[in-house]
Input
Amino acid sequence: MQIKARESVWTYLGDASDTLYLVHTFVVSALLTLWIAFPLQPDLVVVATMAASVILAWRVYERVEKFSLSALPLSFRVATDYRPYQNRFFRAIDSFRAR
Output
């Protein structure tokens, strides 16, 4: 279900979370290779990996994802109207809950 939410830091982080999910694997792999070559304390490596992942995801979101989304036609960017009660499955679930 999609709702309209006003712009806030939470909506920004929610939009950028997909980018973090996609980008963190590259950062983790690169820093793991460095950690094997130059052993450091594990806590330091974890903090550095988290910080690098968040920073890279933020930059990719700002430079790539926002730009590519703005190039799409408006019909692709607007959330579709969600009407669960037109679906027979949702009506059956609600009738079961009402018992």
Notes: Residues 80-85 have pLDDT under 50 and may be disordered. The two ends are 24 Å apart (CA to CA). The helical segments are 9-37, 42-71, 74-77, 88-97.
